[in-house]
Structures are given as C-alpha cells and as structure tokens.
Amino acid sequence: MRIAILGATSQIAKDLIVSFSSASNNHLHLFARRPDEVTTWLSSVTLVGRYSIDNFSEFAKHDFDAVINFVGVGNPARTAAMGNAIFDITAQYDQLVLDYLQTHPACRYLFLSSGAAYGSGFGEPANRDTPAVIPLNKLAPHEWYGVAKLYAECRHRAHPELSIIDIRVFNYFSHTQDISARFLITDILRAIRDNTILKTSSDYIVRDFISPSDFYRLVDALLVAPATNAAVDVYSRAPIDKPTLLNAMQEKFGLRYEVIKSPAGVNATGGKPHYYSLNKRAAEFGYQPSLTSLEGVLQESEKIIKRNFI
Taking the model in full, what pTM does it have? Predict the structure, then answer.
C-alpha cells in the first residue's frame, strides 16, 4: 500500500513510521514543512534512505492508496502558544487532502482528530451518544483546538462519498515523548529523573493512554477494513485513574509526590476529569488493543528511564 504521511515531524507520526518499517508491503512517502528534520530523524533511527521525503508542495504530484494527516500540535504548551493559528493550520492541510481526494476518490484518508472535539467538559467519559458541546457565545482560547478538530470532522461527514476516518486520540504516551512537555506523565518522569517531589493537584482524573504498538494496530485495522466515512475513538484495554497511576509509578520507579490543592499543570484544552471514551466502534473495524493504560505507561516509561536516567 502506498501511504502518504503528512506532518512527519510529529511524535506520533514518527512512532507510526517506525512501526510501519517492519511491514515490507507498505511504501511510505513522508511530507513535512521541515523535510531536513525528517531526514535527520530517519538517520537517528537507522531508517535513512528507506522512505521518500518531500515538502507539501510535492504531495499532489503522486498517487497514494491512503493519506494519514498528522499536521497539528500534541503539546499543551505549544497548543496554547499557537493560539488562533490552530484554525488556519488545521483547515489548510485538511483542505489539501480533500482537494486531492476529488481527483483520487479511491484514496483513503485518516485524519488525526482529538477527544477535544467533544468539547471541554468530560464530567463523564464519552460514549456513542455523547454530543459535542461548544459554548458558542463564550468560546475560550482553550477550546479552539477542539473546535478546529470538530470543524474538520463536520467537513468530512459532509462528504459521505469519500473514504475518510477521523481518529480521535485522547491520551497517547510513548518512550519518544519529549519529557519537557507539560503532561501529568511527563511531570512524573521529570520528578523521577531529577529526584524531586512531584507536586500535583488533588483533582481526581481518569485517563486512557494508548501506546505506540496499539496505535499501530488501530491504524493497520482501519487501512485494511472496508472503505467508509466515519469517526472512531481511540482506547486501550482499560483506563487508569490518577491515584493508581501515581502509586504505580512510586512502586515501580520510586516516584515521590505530594498532593496539593491548587492546579499544578497546563490545561491548554480545558480541565477534563474523565478524558477518555467508552465508544468502542473501532472494534467494528477489527481493532483489539493489547495493553491497558497502566501496562502501556509502565512499558514506555521503563524505556525512557533506561535510556535517559541510568
């Protein structure tokens, strides 16, 4: 299968490229705003020369069986810093693919959406009947990212004749994660690395972390399933709550932490007590996750700690 990867500099795209590298029947063509950065990265993971690399101006000149669009941001601090530009960037590269599909209607399109497309509530986990709730008259900056994704999904559903699947990622964690990013899990890892006490809020939250291996399983299942126009939520075998995660990281890696009353993180897309989904529609496409959130986090964290801290 000939697959175009748009936004090949993103962490989740890089992890998927590495996962794809073991499948000889797939030919990847990587596109990025900074192609030289992709070339340097491929060399670092011993994949130099394995794939074609271009900037986006070359995209429409090729024939692909599938396009996977990763263009965007995956770091809360970067999301906040980008501000309203997230609307234009998301729309620009989504339109690039939609235009391509008009002349290549058999091509599949996988779009990296987000659980934030549901809105910024999540007092309860999402399910198949959960509506997207947008405070239209009081739209706050932390909601722009989710609205940009929602808008793209609405455009996709307006083209039922095209094979487009939106992949709503809630929580993704990998050993390639930049631990300077402001996520709870990276705050935990920095505290372990620096032998400091993590100060974390008393807020009770539940997260569902998907690992690189299960994300690859999902993408692979979607690429070989019958073509359709739909959206799927990403999930592991089981979510995990914050107290359990903290205790597990303490037991496994010696984390020291202190619970405080004030917020202690960056909420670029809003506070979400139960930021995960019970919508298992992806199973209809053949997806079956192999790891729980805890298993995935411990597995990927151990790789980070062995590589960087020892």
Answer: 0.93
